[in-house]
Each structure stands twice: as structure tokens, then as C-alpha cells.
Amino acid sequence: MMFRTAFLIVCLVFALPASGAEDPGRVLFTYGGWEGHEPESYRDLLVPWLQGEGFEVIVADSLEPYADAELMQSIDLVVQIWTMGTITGDQLNGLLTAVENGMGIAGWHGGLGDSFRLAQRYEYMIGGQWVEHPGNDGIPYRVNITDHEDPITRGLADFDVVSEQYYMHVDPNNKVLATTTFNGDHDYWVRDAVIPVVWKRKFGEGRVFYTSLGHKPHVYEIPEALTILQRGILWASRSKYEETPNLISPLYPSR
Ligand SMILES: [Zn+2]
């Protein structure tokens, strides 16, 4: 009941219907988990933008909506910032089922890529899991755009970031759009390691978009970073309305 009350209050504040715009769909924005990733700041950054794009946005500071099958059927996209949390079996099943059925999911950094460490099917869906950020915050590094054809990264040049450089374990079949190379200043043995920064994939019929950028919101003051995040979110929101080709993009030779 406590959740219901809080959830409804949040809905009243944020679920302002877009007027006059074409209806691009319904987004569930879930925020919570570890406070160091500033879930409230990201809520305030992205919810107004989503509304400006014409989405109806349901904002929840709980994972409980994931277990509400009727609600989840009506959602076109989940945008989630939830780091180092725990998810119940019902919530996880609800989320995975909705994505399998065509709901998109999009997010960044630990809010999507380090959400529920014990939920291996969640990681199977996302296509990666954070394991380290050598040297912690304040690392200068370059993001290399490796796919110049994909609409999410088309027209963008490489750019520099000072933040956490995420070292991730990733599904080698993700369609990777950008990478970063480690210089070995911290954890010398990973010098020259190339790790994805942006990828897209499918899970069932649902589109999955992820970028490891964004330990703090200031990273999204970099225009290229914000463009990638916004394009990725919009792309993921369209699973139910647009055909998605097979995105399997194997890193290793098959024979
Ligand atoms: Zn972080």
C-alpha cells in the first residue's frame, strides 16, 4: 500500500499528457537504487524531455510496476536508472515478459548495466554487466564511434569524456555502436582492451538500448553523449510499431 500511494502521487506530478502532439506512446520511467548515480537528477533531466517528445510518462520510484501485467502491456518503453538493486521474481518476470512481447528498454551506466547483479536473465536481456571502472571517477578517455551507419551514431565524431570508464562483460553478439580503449594507467593488464560503450540488441520482440556513459549527469552536457542517449531511447520506444531486423552481430568468426 505504501508503494501504491507513493506511486500515485508521483504519477499525478509527472504524468502530464502531451497535448496536440502525435502519440508516440507510453513510457515507464523507473528510478532508484544507489544514490551515487543521482537517479533524481536524471529523472529531472529526462522526464521533461520525454514529455516534450510527446510521450505519456509514468514515473515510479519503485520496481513494483514491473509485476503489474496489465500496466506493463500498455507500456511501449521502460527507461530505468536503478543501480545495485534487488528485484523480486515477479518483477523480473514481468519486465522480461514485457520486453519479449515488444516493449523496449533503454538506459545508461549502472542504472541499466549494473542493476540486479544476481538476476542473470536480466543480464542476458541487457547484453552486459559492469564489472570494474579502473581508477574510479575522473578518468579522461575517448569514446570511439565505431558504427557510422546506424541512425543512433550516424554523423557523430569521436569525443572525450572525464568520468568512470566502464569495463564491462558483454554479450559478443551485441550490435556495438561505440567503444573505448583502456590505456592501462590503472590495472596495467587491461592496456589496449577495447570495451563497448554503446550497443543495441533485441530480446524477443523488444528493443534494448544501452550506453555505459553517465556516472554523473554532467556527462550529458557533452552534445554527442546526449544525442546518443536520446536517439537510443527513441529507437527503443518503437519496437511495437516498426520492424526490427536481426541485430545479432557476432564478434567472433563462426567457423
Ligand atoms: Zn558510476
List the helices and strands and how they pair.
Layout: H1 2-14, E1 26-33, H2 39-52, E2 56-60, H3 69-73, E3 77-83, H4 89-100, E4 104-108, H5 109-113, H6 120-126, E5 128-132, E6 139-145, E7 159-163, E8 167-170, E9 175-181, E10 194-203, E11 206-211, H7 223-236
Parallel strand pairs: 1-2, 1-3, 3-4, 4-11
Antiparallel strand pairs: 5-8, 6-7, 6-9, 9-10, 10-11
The protein binds zinc ion.
β-strand percent reads 25-35%
Q: How many strands, which pairing sense, and closed or not: the largest β-sheet?
A: 9 strands, mixed
- Coarse morphology: globular
Report the structural category: alpha/beta
Number of helices: 7
First-residue to last-residue Cα separation? 55 Å
Q: What would you report as the Rg, rounded to the nearest angstrom? A: 17 Å
Q: What is the subunit organization of this protein?
A: single chain
CATH architecture classification of the domain at 2-130 and 172-177 and 196-236: 3-Layer(aba) Sandwich
Strand runs, count:
11
Ligands in the model, by name, code or SMILES, are:
zinc ion
The poorly predicted ranges are 11-21
The side-by-side strand order for the widest beta sheet comes to: 2-1-3-4-11-10-9-6-7
The CATH C-level class name of the domain at 2-130 and 172-177 and 196-236: Alpha Beta
What is the typical, i.e. mean, pLDDT? 93
- What is the helix/strand order? HEHEHEHEHHEEEEEEEH
CATH superfamily of the domain at 2-130 and 172-177 and 196-236: Class I glutamine amidotransferase (GATase) domain
Helix content: 25-40%
